[in-house]
Write a structure and sequence with these properties.
Elements (H helix, E strand, L loop, with lengths): L1 E5 L9 H4 L5 E6 L12 H13 L3 E6 L5 H5 L4 H17 L4 E4 L11 E5 L5 E5 L1 H6 L16 H10 L5 H22 L2 E4 L18 H10 L5 E6 H5 L6 H10 L3 E6 L1 E4 L5 E4 L10 H10 L5 E4 L17 H21 L1
Parallel strand pairs: 1-2, 1-12, 2-3, 3-4, 4-7, 7-8, 8-9, 9-12
Antiparallel strand pairs: 5-6, 6-11, 10-11
Length: 346
């Protein structure tokens, strides 16, 4: 197992010098942010990230993410052009030492929350989701935390209209089309693809979600049966689906070598759909983080891990979910779990 930390590049307010001081941290998970979705990343931009990581003694073996252009998800006529660009990005990243790419195939939104600063009793704040609030929104006049600056109203309405009538099967077929063209390139350069589950794991605004359950994973693995076709095991996203057995999934997919990357975080259920994000420790929320880590270890997991969304604590006013302090605490907690469970087995 390698412990990593999400880093938003050279403009991130959290420096690599700070990240390297977190005990047990081996590397960062990053991306190129100066290039439009669907375009080829410049070798200079990739090299600049790599150089900064090397100078701070941190590996850059995971990229999160190389975004998938909406034309690929929609199956439009330009998808082959964008897929070829994606393949070139895989080749260029491999040359820089990257071994795993985390990506998603969620239409329009790759995550949804209704509040980015939900206040807890201890004074911390974190992201939360309230389904009733989502259902009250007019899809043609959306205002969503974290997305208001990503799309203009016209762009968002146009995208939603493009997906009108798209079925789960159609979106899944477009994912398979994409994977069957990039996986041979991955095999050539020894790159693993780790698809991130839907967040939250149910349809919203009529947009189909297709990577939300164990059944979805089995369908994906059957359609593209290749070792490079794996998953990002995100406990928070999968955990929002109350029917998902995270311990069984963690063990089974680790045993089969399908978990290339793990995002580990905890959430607290409010009811059957609502949740808020909490500290990583098991007793902070509704997920058995100890049990999940134990299942990963017993399944033989040896991929990359990162502490996922953290709270804003100790007066920090950071990018929601991506402050320093709580994620650093989460990394230390997770490192402790892995060490204790691994040594206990020996």
């Amino acid at each position: 197992m390698k412990m990593t930390f999400r880093w938003y590049g050279l403009n991130d307010c959290i420096s690599l010098q700070t990240i390297r001081q977190i005990p047990g941290m081996t590397g960062v998970v990053t991306a190129v942010y100066d290039t439009p979705v669907g375009s080829v990343w410049s070798e200079d931009s990739i090299a600049a990230l790599k150089k900064a990581c090397d100078e701070n003694g941190l590996e850059m073996e995971v990229i999160e993410s190389v975004p998938v252009h909406e034309d690929i998800k929609l199956g439009r006529c330009r998808r082959d052009e964008y897929i070829e660009n994606y393949c070139e990005n895989i080749r260029r990243l491999s040359k820089a030492g990257v071994k795993c790419i985390c990506y998603n195939f969620m239409p329009v939104f790759d995550w949804l929350r209704t509040n980015l600063h939900t206040l807890a009793e201890d004074g911390s704040n974190s992201l939360s989701y309230n389904h009733e609030e989502i259902m009250k929104l007019d899809p043609k006049h959306l205002s969503l935390p974290g997305w208001d600056e990503s799309y203009t109203a016209e762009e968002l309405n146009g995208l939603l209209e493009s997906y009108a009538g798209m079925t789960h099967d159609q979106l899944f077929d477009n994912l398979v089309y994409f994977l069957k063209r990039i996986i041979p390139v991955c095999n050539d350069v020894k790159m693993n693809m780790a698809i991130h589950p839907d967040d939250p794991p149910w349809d919203v605004f009529g947009l189909p979600r297709i990577i939300s359950t164990a059944e979805d994973y089995e369908r994906l693995f059957a359609a593209v049966p290749d070792n490079a076709n794996g998953i990002t095991f995100c406990t928070g996203s999968l955990g929002a689906g109350r029917d998902n057995d995270l311990l069984q999934m963690a063990y089974d997919y680790a045993k089969r070598g399908k978990i290339h990357f793990a995002h580990i975080r905890n959430i607290q259920y409010s009811n059957e759909l609502d949740f808020r994000e909490v500290g990583h420790k098991t007793d902070c929320g509704s997920l058995d983080i100890y049990g999940i880590v134990k299942a990963l270890v017993e399944g033989g997991f040896d991929g990359y891990v990162r502490p996922d969304h953290g709270r804003n604590i100790w007066g920090e006013n950071a990018k929601p979910g991506y402050g320093l302090y709580d994620r650093a605490l989460g990394a230390c907690y997770l490192n402790g779990l892995f060490e204790a469970i691994e040594k206990g087995r020996k």
